[in-house]
Amino acid sequence: MRTGPKYKIARRLGDAGIFSKTSNPKFALSRERKERTKSRGKRRGGRSEYGTQLIEKQKVRYTYGINERQLSNYVKRSRKDKKIAPGISLYKFLESRLDNVVYKLGFASTRSFARQMVSHGHIMVNKRRVTIPSFQVSIGDTVTIREQSKSSKGFVGLPEKLKECQVPAWAVVDIIALSGKITKEIGEVGEARTLNLGAVIEFYSRV
What mean pLDDT is predicted for residues 18-37? Predict the structure, then answer.
């Protein structure tokens, strides 16, 4: 998924956590200056319900680096699941993507880099190479960096970095083997940060 200037997008959507590049004090200061400039200008009316839902949809797209069609398909699948609420189901689909799992395990510093790792064939799932970032990881799966890739430049010093990484509750990481075992269902509801997935579901119910 191609993106434009990350600072501009994050400011427009009002969420610094969308990109790793904007999750820093520099962004916070630039946003503060922008808000002060706006306050001196003409006062704007409140955002409509549709506008709010659109913003939330875009936040999800940019956070996970997926396109419109992918998100729409996830929402459709989530609405068909009668066992849990659509928003929770959607979150589980997003979090279970292989590129997201690689990122959450600490093998990549950003989801974008994780997506690149998967696409370039550096990642194994249950000893099989998987090159599809959207591949859905399940309980019991083992995600490993391909043996031939461990000496690559992008993985130098990774064991040391993993010692400082906070592993999600649904996985156990072997620092020596550079592998992660999925031990629980991916996508605890409390992890959903600031994403309003209910608004995303409502957005797609309009179309």
Answer: 55
